[in-house]
């Protein structure tokens, strides 16, 4: 028998269950959570009483590369996919107007950057 499977941050059981143990050969269906994409998948209770792997079954959605501000630079922390952040800084002689960082977040059934990139404005105004 297999114990209840671990919580998966990228997928959820398609049919919730309160069971704590499952017979060998049991299949459980999963769906990708918001922020991830992929087809539904199954894990199986194997003869050694462990679940088959769910690794790489759901991929993080991409927010796309945000535009780099004129007279500034950005550093993407991650790969511009769900959960990533972007930090901004302005070149010398310019000041940052807006947020210093934005994040790729869930929005409805997709993902988006949580704000617009900042503007780097000349200090010589």
How would you characterize the overall build of this protein?
It is rod-shaped, with a radius of gyration of 21 Å. It has 125 residues and is mainly beta. 0% of the residues lie in helices and 42% in strands. The chain contains no helices and 13 strands. The protein starts with a strand and ends with a strand. Strand 8 and strand 9 (85-90) form a beta hairpin. The protein has two domains: 2-60, Complement Module, domain 1; 72-122, Ribbon (Complement Module, domain 1). The strands form five sheets. It has a four-stranded antiparallel beta sheet with strand order 8-9-11-12, with no helix packed on it. The protein has a three-stranded antiparallel beta sheet with strand order 2-4-6, with no helix packed on it. Strands 1-3 form a two-stranded antiparallel ribbon. It has strands at 2-3, 11-13, 21-22, 27-32, 36-37, 41-44, 59-60, 72-77, 85-90, 94-97, 101-107, 110-113, 119-122.
Secondary-structure map:
Blueprint: E1 2-3, E2 11-13, E3 21-22, E4 27-32, E5 36-37, E6 41-44, E7 59-60, E8 72-77, E9 85-90, E10 94-97, E11 101-107, E12 110-113, E13 119-122
Antiparallel strand pairs: 1-3, 2-4, 4-6, 5-7, 8-9, 9-11, 10-13, 11-12
């Amino acid at each position: 028998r297999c114990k209840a499977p671990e919580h998966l941050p990228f997928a959820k059981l398609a049919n919730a269950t309160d069971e704590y143990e499952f017979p060998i050969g049991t299949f459980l269906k999963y769906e990708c959570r918001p922020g991830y994409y992929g087809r539904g998948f199954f894990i199986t209770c194997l003869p050694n009483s462990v679940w088959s792997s769910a690794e790489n079954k759901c991929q993080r959605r991409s927010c796309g590369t945000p535009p780099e501000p004129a007279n500034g630079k950005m550093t993407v922390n991650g790969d511009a996919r769900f959960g990533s952040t972007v930090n901004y800084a302005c070149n010398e002689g310019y000041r940052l107007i807006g947020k210093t960082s934005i994040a790729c977040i869930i929005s409805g059934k997709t993902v988006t950057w949580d704000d617009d990139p900042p503007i780097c404005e000349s200090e010589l105004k």
